[in-house]
Amino acid sequence: MIRKAALLTLLTALLASPAGMAGTAAAVPAGRAAAAAAPADPLVVNEITPEVVRDAAAPVTISGTAVGAQGTSVRVVVRYAPNRPLTSRGEMAAYLSEQGYVPSNWSTRVQATPLDQAGKLPFRFTVTPQELGMSRPGVYPLAIEVTDAATGQRIAIERTFLTYAPKGEQIPKVKLALALPLVDRPHRADDATFMDDDLSASLASGRLAALLQTAQDTGDKVTWFVDPALLDDVRVLSSGARIVRGVRKEADPAAGQWLNGLRGALTGKPVVATPYADPDMTALVHHGLDKQAAASVQRGAALASEVLGREIHGTTAWPAGGRIDRDTLDELAISGVTSVLLSADALPVRAAAQDDPAAITPTPLTPDGAATLYSVADKPLTALLADPTLSEVLGGNVSAPGAALLARQRFLAETAMIAFEWQNGQPAQPGRSGQPNRTGQDGPDGSAKTPSPTVVAVPGSHLWTPDPAFVSGLLQAASSAPWLSMTSLDSVKPGRDGATRGDLAYTERDRQAELGRSHLATVRKLERKAEAVATVTAEHTDVFHAAILRLTSASWRGDAKRAASFAQRVKETIDQRITGVSVLDSPRSVAGSNGQVPVSVANNLDQDIEIRIRVTSGSKSRLAIDADDGTYVTQPTRVLAGRSQLVNVPVIVRGGGGEASISVQLLTDGDVEYGNAVRVVVRATGYTGIAVVIVGAALVIMLAAVVMRVLRRRSRRAFPFDGTTTGEGPPEDRPDAVPAERTQSP
């Protein structure tokens, strides 16, 4: 009796796990029972061996601890259903939630057993499947309940399962594909600035260290989704000095070790590149940022291949939350994506109801984990559909004592039930003649072959924090389960399970979870500025392309404050770059009714630029631009690095002149505005016409004087003073000449 009572205690602990195992802990009335309910974990299960029962006579060992107040008397009750295995996953869920399923009771009690001085009651029981009433293969419910010995009130209860799969039993094989994310939120704003130093800590002993350990412990059938932005951040962290919020820090050797360790851990394993920075694809498409969505897909695969040193494809997309709508699916298809990893409830099975043929109703069988999706692309996409329950167990928190054990038992029971469902109620499938074939595809000898369903499991969040020991233990248990066969994600193809699925389910709640409108409006503005910076240089350089993509990361969901700080830093850096090319705004002068105003552009960048200048008048009544439509636009002009370029703008002075202004806007070669327009003051006068007349008259007088002087000198040479026109040389050289009286020339 003691052995059976201990079994009851263990089973209660299994079901009360905080890892999503549907365990419950009931509050106890005031008094002595209330003291027993005080501990956070009043029931802990430490052992269930074997995890899968294969032999009806082999013992099953269950051990654990009941925890409470010192001296409190408790009793343990084991509940199970002999000869009554569960028949469906729906029945399993009802049992765990204590709604609609109550197993037959066979109770064994530990009477009025007080807890020891430490407030604990260790237990260890050994029972056989026969004692538990396991007469045929299946998944059996087990519960352990701890109650107060005096009042009979429940202190805690754990519900779990034991799977009985006797040797020699023919059970359909379930193909199991696991996909795990290796993703982190961005740590850099612009390429040169880290906004925090959290990455180093995570690589050394935090979440990323646990992810590396998990990757090293998993086999070659697990598919890893790797964010290239994370790889890039780690590479920058390890390669040299960095700036962390204005403080210079040296390279982190541990980052290089982590990156090398990851390369080794992923060798020979299937790896998929997420789009760069794991963006919120649905949000980008919904807010008109399709260009960024496509760019993230292309950049992701190329960068992952570069960092990991092997070809990594990005043709499988795993959107945030495992949900997308039709618009996003079309965008992904156009970008080269051929398959999408979704939650199975994002593409629900459609079953016709009598009153509503379009209704979505549950199916008694777990449908195959792949389906076909059609989009605007020529070829259909494959929808890889992750089982929600298995994904919840895989990605749940198993840090509490006993939680990992209960999670593993649940995972094995759920996959076993899928196999039993297909064995007992195989879906109708079309045979070669088009008639339903209840037994599946024909075998090589013409005999019926049991179909092999495929299930996919993934953690619910891309920012998953794994427990390496739990994941390793789960994979070992799955590999040894007689009904499971591990497979890689890329081998999962749409089957012929007869299930008809509805359209993609994307609700208003899903939309509300997307990145906010305000943040994406900021991203759009920064993108326009970054585009100008990229195209103003003679050789186009996407200086801020990666920074903009990091701002679209789905990790910013629910973290608007941090996202805003990253966006502000990127804005400051882009603005600083833009000011490297400037228009000198010192006042200018122009004389006359028309003329030219000089405009000077300075290039303080380290690269040559190709720039155009657009000039308009801000005071058309006083100063007009002498060009069509009053707008003067130059041809593309090259300005060398570190130099200035002067451009003369033709103007017309009106209304007597005065102080006016012109607006100078720099344009890239693609007519994208570069920076803000600059206002230049121009001082113009309309009285310069009189000045021109005066200056012209003076020039005429001076010219006349010069002509008179030249004529006078010639006349002296042509007419000698003795009245003759013969002889050689000047008159003063001739003996008969009369000296001339010398006078001042005009």
Provide the fold topology:
Elements: H1 2-15, H2 32-36, E1 43-49, E2 52-53, E3 60-67, E4 73-80, H3 89-96, E5 113-114, E6 120-127, E7 138-148, E8 154-164, E9 174-182, E10 193-194, H4 198-205, H5 207-217, E11 223-226, H6 228-239, E12 242-244, E13 247-249, H7 253-265, E14 271-273, H8 281-286, H9 290-308, E15 316-317, H10 326-334, E16 339-343, E17 349-350, E18 370-373, E19 381-386, H11 388-395, H12 403-424, E20 429-430, E21 436-437, E22 454-457, H13 468-480, E23 484-487, E24 500-501, H14 508-512, H15 517-536, H16 545-550, H17 560-578, E25 581-583, E26 588-591, E27 594-603, E28 609-617, E29 623-625, E30 631-633, E31 637-639, E32 644-653, E33 657-667, E34 673-685, H18 688-718
Parallel strand pairs: 2-8, 9-11, 9-22, 9-23, 10-12, 11-14, 15-16, 16-19, 26-34
Antiparallel strand pairs: 1-3, 3-6, 4-5, 4-7, 7-8, 12-13, 17-24, 18-19, 20-21, 25-27, 27-32, 28-30, 28-31, 28-33, 29-32, 33-34
Helix pairs in contact: 4-5, 5-7, 5-13, 6-7, 6-9, 11-12, 12-13, 15-17
Summed up:
By secondary structure, this protein is an alpha/beta fold. It is built from 18 helices and 34 strands.
Number of helices: 18
Low-confidence stretches: 1-39, 427-448, 721-746
What is the residue-averaged pLDDT? Answer: 82
Main sheet makeup: 6 strands, mixed
CATH topology of the largest domain: 7-stranded beta/alpha barrel
CATH class assignment of the largest domain? Alpha Beta
Task: Give a count of the beta strands, DSSP E runs of length 2 or more.
Answer: 34
Measured on Cα atoms, how large is the radius of gyration? 42 Å
As for the number of domains, it is 4
What is the end-to-end distance? 145 Å
Which architecture of the largest domain per CATH?
Alpha-Beta Barrel
What would the principal axes of the Cα set say about the shape? elongated
Structural class: alpha/beta
Helix content: 25-40%
Strand content: 15-25%
Keywords: Membrane, Signal, Transmembrane, Transmembrane helix
Protein name: Glycoprotein
